[in-house]
Amino acid sequence: MTVAPRLSTLLLAAITILVAALLYSPLFVPIVSSFFPVARGEVDWSSPTVSTYVALAANHEILLALRTTLVVGACTVVLSVAGGTLLALYYHGRRAGRSLLQFIIFLPFLMPPIISGLALLIFFREIGIERSLLTVVIGHTVFVLAIVYRTVLTRLQSMSRTLVEASYDLGATKWQTFWRVILPNLSSAMVGGAILAFALSFDETMITILVTGTQTTLPVRLWAMMRLGFSPDINALVALILMFTVLLCALAARFLVPRQIATQRS
Amino acid sequence: MNQNSDLLTLRSVSKSYGTVPVLYGIDLAIRDGEFLTVLGPSGSGKTTVLRLIGGLEPLTSGEIRLDGQDISGMPINRRPFNTVFQDYALFPHLTVAGNVGYGLSVRHVPRKEISRRVAEALELVQLGRFADRFPAQLSGGQRQRVALARALICQPRLVLLDEPLAALDLELRRQMQEFLKSIQREVKTTFLFVTHDQEEAIGMADRICVMQAGHIRQLGTPHELYYKPNCEFVARFFGENNLVAGTLGEVRGEFRAIETALGRLVCSVNGQPHLKAAAAGASGFAAFRPEALHFAGDGDADNRLSGTIADLAFAGSSTVATITAGGDVAHRLRLRFPSRVDGSALRVGETVALSFAPHEGHLVLA
Asked: Does residue B233 sit within a domain?
């Protein structure tokens, strides 16, 4: 490597680290302070404790919100994986209408959540659907569909067309080809997409606030608590949500790395 | 198996992609049990022929008959043919055994029988130890053999091979050629092998079908194609050749003269009535192989040529001399002669007399 590319690589790395530090380092404040007690608005740095986490586990409202979040996440995953995969399969190899479809699928993901949320809210009111967990699930599904669609479509496009031809050639029917060749080759992309969808649903706030009924999810609960100022349990909750989301994203990356690269490495 | 009965016949089969025609009404009869190679440069339509027979593409017009029955509209998964794809198309999520057994498994063959036949098929291609590996863990040659075993296990009437050796290096390709040929003899199944490599075609085929620009130019044994090409394309494409243009002269027994810029040449028309019947004055070529051309001695009465040696290339067992002959329009002729341990006395720039025996010369119509 000559000097110039090496220099630019170093510069790029420095900028990346700087951006990451500026963006994410403030998050360490609540994480670190969640392990210390607060007395009269002052953090007592002398005695580390996990008491806030213990208190959190006993907080009935938080647990209820957590349960709601998990239920919404699970439903969203099922709907978005099924929908995204079907759309990807349907439009794979088709020329006409695909760019329009992609645009429509990606719109709610790329728009500011408040716009998507408002659009959904107005839509639900106009057709007379009561705001409830169902509307939250629909909102989340519309929001994360793009992620599943994209991951599955990418895998489909990298799949050799002759695999399907070989399956027919060996006597398989359409259904056999789908179940035995196409689906197994898509499964890791679907799992990766599902984890990402769950992670997005897990901390989605804006759309949820607008379309939810009486029940609240964890991030919405957090949002409500923060209006009264930062308390130790908020810090602990932020720390937990953060760790969980990072874990999910790391897991998703594992599934989305193409199989060939994984085997080459082993 | 009866080598003489036709297994599959193509009748005026045409194929167009949109408005672009790729096959122009070809006729072809594949004999039961033969190793037929379809040879042609890229874009000749040879892979399309294979895909039409396999059912991977619909015909534009014409028909394909199997044992006399029209199968043009038969879906791909019901045709008793199996394909070895150029990229092998092994299923990456299945083991070698899973890949080979796939064709039986989708037909609901009992599990015990599948594992017995998979073991047999892997034994046939000498991959018995690799049953539990995944395709990503195999070398190119091994994948190739898995693909072959997978195609053979369904006991197809016809195995279609789409340039399966193209991705292998030279040494491995030679081994695989012998291997394929021996397997074909062992299982006595008809093989249709598509390639652009004429050496590969000569080495393996019982018969070769030469294609160019969507037409079949000639169908015959490698020997026929080499010594009796029926057109300029085949004469030039198939092996090294000398072609000299001219106009046809009179017929004398099994020979016919052709007037060329290098003088009057006499060539054999034995067993080729169309060359005897062609009108005098029609344009054509005298064709003679580099190994048929030799340095002329006193006994050579016919077909005497002279020229200067432009290049001498040692090629191991033989040496190839490139000779410039003729006046206004220079002809480059190639002459191949056996190499000798004490070298040859010939020098570049030397003027030499050449000749070829009339029965080793051949005519093609332009």
From this structure: no
Q: Is residue B232 part of a domain?
A: no
Among the partner-chain residues A172, A185, A264, the one whose CB lies closest to the CB of B93 is: A185
Q: Which domains does chain A have, with CATH numbers?
A: 49-265 (1.10.3720.10)
Residues in chain A with CB shorter than 8 Å from the CB of B18 are none
Same domain, B131 and B279: no
Residue B334, domain member (yes or no): yes
**Tens of pLDDT, residues A120-152:** 999 999 998 888 889 999 999 999 999 999 999
Residue B22 phi, psi (nearest 5): -115, -20
C-alpha–C-alpha distance, residues A223 and A73, integer Å: 18
Instruction: Note whether B102 contacts A172, CB cutoff 8 Å.
Output: yes
Judged by CB atoms closer than 8 Å, whether chains meet at B102 and A180 is answered as yes
Task: Give the integer Cα–Cα distance in Å for A239 and A218.
Answer: 13
Asked which of A230-234, A236-240, B21-25, B98-102 is least confident by mean pLDDT, the reply is: A230-234
Q: Indicate if B13 and B158 belong to the same structural domain.
A: yes
Q: How far is CA B81 from CA A168, B37, B299, in A?
A: 11, 16, 56
Specify whether B94 is located in the same domain as B120: yes
More confidently predicted of B98 and B303: B98
According to DSSP, the β-strands at B158-162 and B81-84 are parallel
Q: Which residues of A touch B84 (CB under 8 A)?
A: none
Cα nearest neighbour of A188 on chain B:
B93
- Identify whether residues B294 and B186 lie together within a single domain: no
Per-residue model confidence as pLDDT tens digits over B248-297: 988 888 899 898 888 888 998 888 888 888 888 889 999 999 999 888 87
Q: Are both B156 and B72 inside the same structural domain? A: yes
Q: Among residues B227, B262, B291, which one ends one of the domains?
A: B227
**Pairwise CB contact (< 8 Å): B106 & A168:** no
- Interface-testing mutation among B47, B51, B57, B85, with chain A (most A C-beta atoms within 10 A): B85
> CB of A263 within 8 Å of any CB in chain B?
yes
Query: Which chain B residues are closer than 8 Å to A167 by Cβ?
Result: 91, 102, 106
Q: Which residues of A touch B91 (CB under 8 A)?
A: 163, 166-167, 181, 185
- Per the structure, the complete domain to which residue B182 belongs is given by 6-227
Residue ranges of chain A whose pLDDT lies below 70? 1-3, 40-41, 95, 230, 258-266
**DSSP letters of B108-175?**
T--HHHHHHHHHHHHHHTT-GGGTT--GGGS-HHHHHHHHHHHHHTT--SEEEEESTTTTS-HHHHHH
Instruction: Tell me the per-residue pLDDT of B163-194, one tens digit each, with 9 for 90 and over.
Output: 888 878 888 888 888 899 999 998 889 999 99
Find the CATH number of the domain harbouring B331: 2.40.50.140
Residue at which a domain ends, from B227, B254, B271: B227
**Contact list, B138 vs chain A (CB under 8 Å):** none
CATH number, domain with residue B107: 3.40.50.300
Residue reference for tokens 């606030």: A209
The domain total for chain B is 2
Q: Does one domain contain both B211 and B273?
A: no
User: Around Cβ B96, how many Cβ atoms within 10 Å?
Assistant: 27
List residues in chain B touching A: CB distance below 8 A. Answer: 54-56, 75-78, 81-83, 85-87, 89-93, 102-103, 106-107, 134, 136-137, 150, 154
Residue in B263, B257, B313 with CA at minimum distance from that of residue B290: B313
Window 102-161 of A, Cβ < 8 Å to B: 160
The answer to whether the CB of B328 falls within 8 A of the CB of B354 is no
Query: B222 and B245: one domain?
Result: no
Mutate to test the interface with B, among A155, A169, A266 (most CBs of B within 10 A): A169
Task: Report which secondary-structure segment, H or E, holds B362.
Answer: strand B361-365
Q: What residues of B are in contact with residue A163 (Cβ under 8 Å)?
A: 89, 91
B235 is a domain residue: no
